[in-house]
Design brief:
The chain is mainly α. It has 16 helices and two strands. Helix 1 runs antiparallel to helix 2, helix 4 packs across helix 14 and helix 11 packs antiparallel against helix 13. It starts with 13 loop residues before the first helix and ends with a helix. The structure holds glutamine (GLN). The site of glutamine has 6 residues, from helix 14. Pfam families: PTR2. It is found in: Cell membrane; Membrane.
């Protein structure tokens, strides 16, 4: 192999550029995730916006869903107009700008404007940078899954630093100072992206995969105008019928989040640009996609429900030290960082003998199931409503994260492998729509959680995840026949 092809831990040099770009993007996303809730609910005098807690929690959940939904827009822009390289660049610019707006004392106006800008920016950046990672490897290269595991560490270094640094600065000094740090981070990420991509990515990703042809332009403009018109008319109707409120918006986004992947798969199937082989790949993909939604549903609750569980059901102590409820979310990334090198080394060592994607997904789902089920133990021992040790929550997170390192990097890798050529970046968006669908669904589901029925809540969901895992596993032969997974 050429030295450039193994320059970054045995992987192509370009992986380091993409690694750090995504690290800074995630730093910004998880910073927002860490302090947004507190920024919303803290009183004006403490520098917050003084919002009601339940509305604020919903806004945070929906923010997460929108972040992943907007990858559809980013995928489209990349595939049809700009190509991944430039789309990622503009994504970074938008994210930095959105964070910068939050630095200014603009309160609600600043909040909503910046959410829109950051959501769009992330949609531009995240699917395309992941897609470019796939582009570093040929279809036969067995380093692909390991490469995604390394890339995934970048994601989680960003995710780990964010709550510790920005969370701390935001809550101790001022939220605006926290957002300033995210801005600086994203700007640094962009600078290294510009330099690194010129040096190491050659011509990769400079052109769109499926550029819009002149005769298609009118059609595309018409479609975009229709969608915009429907949204505007819908909002106006809601406004004049006095139904324009946060709860209704959240409900609509929930429906949209679940419908969107279905519409997407339908469109891909209908497209004349895909071959019979592509079609088989997409069938397989749909099955693993559905499995992933169940995984993400549980996983994302470790970021929304778990801080609540920490607050309401644990003693908030680790090693006898008091910890903030929000700080528990930092452990997700920490465990990924511990597991990833091991798993990446395992896949590299096993080469062609590594388990199929279906098996990796099954393990992922089982881990998510057990992470919820393990919480039944302290409830059973102590009784409902009695506070238990914070370590139980850490144990639960440690288990779900085994699932994440098995499922998520191989999901990314599989997506880049199975995507029909004309839908490369858009397929990557679909992968993230799995998380969006899960979070949209969660926005309603979390309402069922309360301390008295926590055992029921975690128990039922754990069992459902086991059932899905068993169904998936029993389909592995059939899926393997459809494609060589
Ligand atoms: N923790 C991962 C990330 O932030 C998982 C998100 C996902 O792939 N849905 O990128």
């Amino acid at each position: 192999r050429h030295p450039e092809d193994t320059a970054f831990f045995g992987h192509p040099h370009g992986l380091s550029t993409l690694f750090f770009t995504e690290m800074w993007e995630r730093f910004s996303y998880y910073s927002m995730h860490a302090i947004l809730l507190f920024y919303l609910i803290d009183s004006f005098s403490k520098g917050g916006l003084g919002m009601n807690t339940s509305i604020a929690t919903s806004i945070v959940a929906i923010y997460g869903a929108l972040i992943y939904m907007s990858t559809v827009i980013g995928g489209f822009i990349s595939d049809r107009i700009l190509g991944p390289r430039r789309t990622v660049f503009w994504g970074g610019v938008l994210i930095a700008l959105g964070n910068f707006i939050l630095v200014l004392p603009l309160r609600f106006v600043g909040l909503y404007v910046s959410i829109v800008i950051i959501v769009l920016g992330t949609g531009f950046l995240k699917p395309n940078v992941s897609d470019m990672v796939g582009g570093l490897y040929s279809k036969e290269d067995t380093r692909r899954d390991a490469g995604f595991n390394i890339y995934y560490m970048g994601i989680n270094i960003g995710a780990l630093l964010a709550p510790f640094i920005v969370g701390w600065v935001g809550q101790t000094y001022s939220y605006h100072a926290g957002f300033a740090l995210s801005t600086v981070g994203m700007v640094l990420g962009l600078i290294q992206y510009c330099i690194g991509s010129k040096k190491y990515l050659g011509k990769d990703g400079l052109l769109p995969n499926d550029p819009i042809k002149p005769d298609e332009k009118a059609k595309v403009i018409k479609q975009v105008s229709w969608v915009t018109a429907i949204v505007v008319v819908g909002l106006l109707i809601m406004y004049f019928t006095h139904t324009l409120n946060v709860n209704n918006i959240i409900f609509i986004i929930t429906i949209l989040g679940i419908l969107l992947p279905a519409i997407y798969f339908f469109n891909i199937f209908r497209s004349p640009k895909i071959t019979p082989k592509d079609r088989k790949n997409v069938i397989v993909y749909i099955v693993v996609f559905i499995a992933s939604v169940f995984f993400w549903s549980i996983y994302e609750q470790t970021m929304t429900i778990f801080p609540l569980v920490a607050q309401q059901m644990t003693d908030l102590k680790l090693f006898g030290i008091h910890v903030q409820a929000s700080q528990f979310t930092g452990f997700n990334a920490l465990f990924v960082l511990v597991y990833s090198p091991i798993v990446a080394a395992m896949w590299t060592k096993m080469g062609k003998k590594q388990p199929s994607s279906t098996s990796k997904f099954t393990i992922g789902l089982l881990a998510s199931a057990f992470s919820f089920l393990v919480l039944l133990i302290p409830i059973a021992i102590n009784g409902v409503g009695v506070k238990f040790s914070g370590w139980w929550l850490i144990l639960s997170i440690a288990i779900v994260e085994i699932g994440e390192v098995f499922l998520s990097p191989s999901g990314l890798s599989l997506t880049t492998k199975l995507a029909p050529k004309a839908f490369n970046a858009q397929m990557m968006s679909i992968w993230f729509l799995g998380d969006a669908a899960a979070q949209s669904f969660n926005a309603q589901l979390v309402k069922l959680y309360s301390v008295p029925n926590a055992a029921m809540y975690f128990g039922v969901m754990g069992v459902v995840a086991i059932v899905i895992a068993v169904i998936l596993f029993s389909m592995r032969g059939m899926l393997a026949k459809l494609i060589q997974l």
